[in-house]
Please model this.
Amino acid sequence: MLVHLFPVIGVLIFPVNSHISYLLICLSFLFFLLEEYGRSPFTLLQIRRRTGNVLTKIDALHNADRKVVLIAHMDSPHTAFYYRPGIINLLRVAFIVDFICQAAIFMLFTVAYGGYLLSMEKDTLTLLWHIGLLLAIFPALSLFALLIKAATAQVTPGGNHNASGVAVLMELARVYSRRQPHNIDLWLVSTAAADAGGLGAKRLIRKYRRELKGAYFIIIDGVGRGFPICYSREGRLIPFRASRRLTKLVKHISEVHAHYSAGFRRNSLYVSEGFQLLSRGRKAITISSREEKRYPRYFKWVKDDYDNIDPRSLRLALDFIIAMVDNIDRGDSK
Model:
């Protein structure tokens, strides 16, 4: 929210105090880029509390040469009016326009501030300020939308996003507790605070930094409707490529088991736990499900209840992930 508040205030106060105005505009653009890189400085302002991650480990029958971490977040997201079916199709466009406005404000006021220091004509500075006011309209609207969400947001039932992922994770725990892998240690983690910048996943890799060095991460997110897909790239502005070895493995499984119908998509809709892991150099890939539509049905909406889950999709996702884990266990990912 502060990423949109700073440029609006900075533009408004430029005639009053150009120094503070330009400082706020620079900080807002820097924070915007850091946030899209998965390094938002505002996470430091979050209340320090336990994330509530639930972790279980299944040891290999023999000496393990690698760890595989299966992750599914258990918290339900908050909804907002811009997640309404139909409007959500415009969300990506709105983000791009927001970025263009933020970048244009930064460049415009860099010129204006330099002109102010060099005693540029007052009429020219006024013209630049008026252009800046027009550019600040969209960040102001974005700020207004975030304020409305903060005031009126409801917790969604979280059927597909992500009770479906937790259900598959629990079934995977049952399967591999009876049939232990031979050469890999399997970690199954149900994370919390995924909607708060992937806080649960970030604290997991921070707490177990040494144990999880070189581990493979498979994120299960929204697998309750449609056919399994994998995110080849994740990020709204700066895309991060999924692990090449895991991507190659997914392609191999799709060729051998064509009925899984696993394709690849780029996730540019939301910042997922997979993005948080990839942006920190981890070997990760996200497994989700899609119908023919571009975006998940009832994504972060109040109708995302258990009627939004297809048991057949859960079975496909389960079989697909079992095939991935078994192939890694046999060493096919090397």
Summary: The chain has ten helices and eight strands. The mean pLDDT is 90. Residues 49-79+155-330 form a domain with the Aminopeptidase fold (CATH 3.40.630.10). The two ends are 43 Å apart (CA to CA).
